[in-house]
Amino acid sequence: MVPLLSSPSPFGEGAALGLIGAVAAVAGVLLPPGELLFGHYRVVPAEAAFKKYAEWGKQYKSDVLYFQTFGSRWIVLNSLKAAIDLLEKRGSNYADRPRFVMFEEMGWAPTLTWLRWGSKYQLHRRVLQPPFSKSRIGQYTDLQRREALIFCQGMINDSDNWPNAVRRCSVAIVLKIAYGLDVEGPESKWIGIAEDSADAIGKAGAPGSSILDLFPLTRYLPAWLPCMERLRYAHTWRSAIETITNLPFEASLNQMASNLDRRFFTHNRVAIHTEAAQQGVETEFDLEDIKGAAATVLIAGNDTTAATVMLLVLYLMQNPEVQQKAQAEVDRVVGRDRLPTCDDLPSLPYTRLVLNETYRMNPLSPLGIPHATVADDVYEGMFIPKGTTVYPNVWAMMHDENVYAEPHRFWPERYLPRGEGGNEEPLPVGNFGFGRRICIGRNLAENSLLIVLATMLATVDIGWPLGPDGKEQKFEPQWSFKGQATVVPFPTRINSRSEKAKKLLDVEVDAVTRKTF
Question: Hey, which family's this protein in (predicted)?
Answer without folding.
Answer: Belongs to the cytochrome P450 family.
